[in-house]
Design brief:
Order of helices and strands: HHHH
Strand content: under 5%
Shape: rod-shaped
Structural class: mainly alpha
Number of strands: 0
């Protein structure tokens, strides 16, 4: 039988890259990463049934790894945003002087 390509391997690779690129957009890579992992899980199931029939498992695996990295970075970004807002407060986010004052109070400078 002729070798085929996994149906979502390219999409998983693109979504994995997008999850890393958009992780600094307030954790926006979370969405791309989750979608990539769901698609990758479907393709991994297909691949495990008949691995000799598919040629692009490598790109699927790379996309899955990139999606995991993007998820971790997005989660770290969200945690950092929550931490900063908890220190500075919502009212000081629009006022640079008040934010600077609260950060200096927090770090004891």
């Amino acid at each position: 039988m002729e070798n085929q390509k996994l149906p979502n391997a390219t999409a998983v690779l693109v979504l994995g890259i997008l999850s890393i690129l958009t992780c600094i957009c307030y954790g926006g890579g979370l969405i791309f990463g989750i979608i990539a992992l769901v698609l990758a899980a479907k393709d991994v199931k297909i691949y495990r049934l008949t691995p000799e029939n598919f040629t692009n498992y490598q790109s699927l695996n790379v996309g899955r790894i990139l999606a995991i990295i993007g998820l971790v970075l997005s989660i770290l970004m969200i945690v950092m945003i929550v931490w900063v807002v908890s220190i500075v407060g919502m009212d000081a986010l629009g006022n640079e002087d008040l934010a600077r004052e609260r950060m200096q109070d927090y770090f004891g400078q």
